[in-house]
Design goal:
The chain has a single domain, classed as Alpha-Beta Barrel (TIM Barrel), CATH 3.20.20.80. 41% of the residues lie in helices and 16% in strands. The chain is globular, with a radius of gyration of 20 Å. This is Beta-glucosidase.
Length: 397
């Protein structure tokens, strides 16, 4: 059945997301920079210059604004702002404030992420989020970001995908460098408890800077789908990997929903995707419907908290498949809105092809760049998605 296009709600966030370490380049004081140069086998190549967005953020924002987007989610780098314990860089704080001002000048509403997977090396040396003073130290960092976020920033994300941080900590404690063929490693319980405490303290710190800022965090939703008879197995598997982090957001102003694919669960646990399914460059099943399941599940768990799709996309060298994926995903967002879900925005992952934690090969970006000259080129998918931001209309389905 075909129906008339649906208008996005007034104020709907329409944009793309990035993470500082993945696009800035030369983030030398971070834990990930050290990992990249440690000879770890699962890291295929270092980030080095990445997309040089530390210097070229104006070009990135110019393109996003010209394409029609109204919002840009980017992270600020703790390792740059506090390269040594208690020593804050006024120059770096000013740099990120210029980015906030630059976004606003271009008509882009900035959503600022305070932590996107990377920490200063000194913080990792102390034990990271399970260190004795982790809450205090992260809160001190948040308080120091006041010059960046105090004015003109309506949305702040404290921590990106805390469930994946706990999962990676669990894998590290088990001595694993990779993930199993299906599903995720068991999250580290100590890290889970610690990062939830850090988040709640960070929310209070942001509100103390400006009570009008909308604060939340983003959760990686794996879209666990139960085979018949495996409902209890699925619920037990999902809770420590996902639901406990969604539950922690019940008092927040919003929650970020991030989804890419699905995970089927049988009586014995996660099942690999069938051999004949289409896969992306990350080897994930091509599954545009994932975001619809993720939104509905998150809403069921979190209760009366607004939802924002803060990441959704695919890694592919075939931009026509990216375009088809987006159309399928947006049909799910549209259906959720029609069914009354409180969805406040859609931000694609990612604005740029970037460093995907060990390799540049998985290309998620709406915009490509030359690795030598760093010249940016908008892909057809960027033109299409940005155009929807101008019209504020869902395509008919």
């Amino acid at each position: 059945m075909t129906h008339a296009p649906t208008r996005f709600p007034e104020g709907f966030l329409w944009g793309a997301s990035t993470a500082a370490h993945q696009i800035e380049g030369n983030n030398v004081n971070s834990d990930w920079w050290r990992k990249e140069h440690s000879g770890t086998s699962h890291i295929q190549e270092p980030s080095l210059d990445a997309a040089d967005s530390y210097h070229r953020w104006r070009e990135d924002m110019d393109l996003l604004a010209e394409l029609g987007f109204t919002d840009y989610r980017f992270s600020i780098e703790w390792a740059r702002i506090e390269p040594a314990p208690g020593r804050f860089s006024h120059a770096e704080l000013a740099h990120y404030r210029r980015m906030v001002d630059g976004a606003i000048e271009r008509g882009l509403r900035p959503m600022v992420t305070l932590h996107h997977f990377t920490v200063p090396q000194w913080f990792e040396n102390l034990g990271g989020f399970t260190a004795d003073r982790a809450v205090e130290l992260f809160t001190r960092y948040v308080e120091a970001t006041a010059p960046v976020i105090a004015e003109g920033v309506d949305h702040v994300c404290t921590i990106n995908e805390p469930n994946m941080i706990a999962v990676m900590a669990g894998a590290a404690k088990a001595g694993n460098t990779g993930f199993p063929p299906a599903g995720l490693p068991t999250p580290d319980e100590e890290t889970t408890d610690a990062i939830i405490a850090v988040h709640h303290a960070a929310v209070k710190a942001v509100k103390a800077i400006n009570p009008d800022i909308n604060v939340g965090w983003t959760v990686a939703n794996q879209v666990y789908q139960s085979l018949v008879g495996a409902e209890e197995v699925t619920a037990a598997y999902r809770h420590p990997r996902e639901d406990v982090f969604i539950e922690a957001a019940r008092g927040d102003d919003w929650i970020g929903v991030q989804s890419y694919t699905r995970t089927r669960i049988g009586l014995d646990g996660p099942l690999p995707a069938p051999a004949d399914v289409e896969r992306t460059l990350t080897s994930w099943e091509y599954y545009p419907a994932a975001v619809g399941y993720a939104l509905r599940h998150t809403a069921a768990v979190v209760g009366d908290v607004p939802l924002i799709v803060t990441e959704n996309g695919i890694a592919t060298a075939d931009d026509s498949r990216r375009l088809d994926y987006m159309k399928g995903a947006l049909a799910e967002v549209e259906a959720g809105l029609r069914d009354g879900l409180d969805i406040r925005g859609y931000l694609h992952w990612s604005a740029l092809d970037n460093y995907e934690w060990g390799s540049f090969k998985p290309t998620f970006g709406l915009i490509s760049y030359d690795p030598v000259t760093f010249e940016r080129t908008a892909k057809p998918s960027a033109e299409w998605l940005g155009g929807l931001g101008r019209t504020r209309e869902f395509p008919s389905a």
